[in-house]
Amino acid sequence: MRLPSGLLDTLLASSRSMVRKVSSVPDAVDVTYRAALKTVALATTVVLLFLFVEAVTDQQIMIEPMAVPRTLENDGYSGAVVSRFLVEEVRAIRQSGDRPDFLSGDSLDYELTRDAIVGFRSDDAFATLATIQVPSSSLSLRSTVTMLRDFLDIPELKISGALTIKRPNGPDNPPLYIVSLQLGAEAGIPAEPVAHADLDQAIRLSARVIVREYDPIGLATYYLNTGQRGELKELADSLMKTRKVEQRTQGLFMRGLYETTLVDKVAFFRKAIALDPQFSDVYNAWGIELFNANRVDEAIAKYSEAIRANPKNGSAYRNRAIAYQTKKEWFALATADFERASKFKPRAKTFFDLGFSYEFLEKFDPRAAIEAYDQAIRLRPGYGWALNNRCYMKAMLKDRSAIADCDMALDDQKAWEIYDSRGFSYLMLGDLDSAIGDYNEAIRRHDNAYSRFGRGVARQRKGDLAGADADFKRAKELDENITDTMKKARLEW
């Protein structure tokens, strides 16, 4: 956005004034020092200009300082403190955990809220601008921002409110703290006052009222992640009654998530799609329910509809890839979808799935899988299964750092698969005794074809041919395709 020339000239004039004052420093002062002061003045002006433009174009919702009784101010609950508390609680709800797999992405500005403004701040964010005067004027930069926003018809979205205390009759009745919020004229659901005997809890519950209005799917996610199904239904029902079409659609979607049978879920999903045919995440959730009912082809079709409605729906790509994996001839399609999912929804488990998918391709390069596991571990340090799989891939390349990966994976959990991977790593690196030791532990925990075959190779190389034959025989009993699998793993015997 370009600023009106008058305001820009004012800010530049301020910069020139600062530079002139710096330039008037006596000649006795070192020239380098004066140059440094000029640089600081220019940098300060650039920062102020940046803050000014950001304030003008800001589209976040501001929670204003609340009106509170004097007694609460004396206890440290000033209006600004309550405002910051609300902002923190709103953010805590919206960041309560991973968005479920039926949502399009991890970004808090995901597709469902494309028409909603869901950033939150308190008035403290621009307190600095209120203290800076525009040169040759009685105006502050903050008030200038306000006038410019009015001129450009950019309304400042504000939430105001008041905190009051109700003292019920009777000595045993605790006081009630009542938080009344004003969400603005465009609010789809009236903000009923929240009353609670615990002040902090009253503020937390009020934060839910704010999230319900501006990020209802975020609140639904919070309820799902915390197992509050009753609250989810109540939220869905309230949204279904609002005058905003978008919120009614979201309410129908949530109610479908709440229902327990496929028939009831689909009934609400159909109603949501009727209101918004481009509601990508409804198709995605519908596909998940079909997949869980073992109707894989129908699920793939729904995932494809979700992608058509939103080509950046990373969750739908990932879910379709999982469905493709159930059909062995479609591994290439699955891998391509995992690659798209990792681009649009870059989560640790998505990169893990991508790495694992590479392992099933006909033309398999362990380096591609290692790169995917690298990303998974970067996003989730100490990710045990990603470390285990990266260990195995490195072992195929005879990379000695494989052992360290398996060691870290074992720090996460003592699974037979990890002992098998470390045994394979030792085998590929020629440490036969260590390989046999890990294979023994893996077999003790779970008799499996991989460890039997690997131990057979180690025994064969040590000259124990009878022990090797017994292991090879048992491995084939457990998995008739184990020989081909180990050839693909680049093991020679």
Describe what this molecule looks like in 3D:
Pfam families: TPR_11, TPR_16. One of its GO terms (cellular component) is cell outer membrane. The chain has 493 residues and is mostly helical. Among the domains are: 1-57 and 119-150, no CATH class; 347-493, Tetratricopeptide repeat domain (Serine Threonine Protein Phosphatase 5, Tetratricopeptide repeat, Alpha Horseshoe). The protein has helices at residues 5-23, 31-57, 70-74, 79-94, 127-130, 141-151, 199-214, 216-225, 229-240, 245-258, 262-275, 280-292, 296-309, 314-325, 331-344, 348-358, 366-379, 384-396, 402-412, 416-429, 432-445, 449-461, 465-478, 482-488, and strands at residues 61-63, 120-122, 158-166, 176-182, 194-196. A 5-stranded mixed sheet has the order 2-1-3-4-5, covered by helices on one side. Helix 17 (366-379) packs antiparallel against helix 18 (384-396). The longest helix is centred in the first third of the chain and has 27 residues, at 31-57. Residues 1-5 and 106-116 have low confidence and may be disordered.
